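Lab notebook, bench 4. The sequencing result for the construct came back, and we need a structural model before the next group meeting so we can plan mutations. Quick request posted to the team channel:

Model the 3D structure of this chain.
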Amino acid sequence: MNEKLIEKKLREKIKELGGRAEKFIPTYFVGAPDRIVLMPGGRVYWVETKSTGDKLRSIQQTRKRQLEKLGFKCYKVDSKQALDRFIEEVKKDVD
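Done. Here's the predicted structure in token form:
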């Protein structure tokens, strides 16, 4: 699965749940995840989308750890299965 398709499916599924999966384009936060997922009730998730099999770059791994240390949930989504797992986690938080 390529990254563009994964991003499209992510946006669609999050919208169905009443949220938004916004493209995050930072100027000074190199390596930040691609998407910030905003859900009702103030829930926030960071998502790095990748084509199937692609790994996080070193700076992306660092940013993921930094965000998690601050208490944010941060995910790498690179396949239909990873997307489905992420959506199930979001649904648990919504219920």
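The two ends are 29 Å apart (CA to CA).
Will bring this to the meeting.
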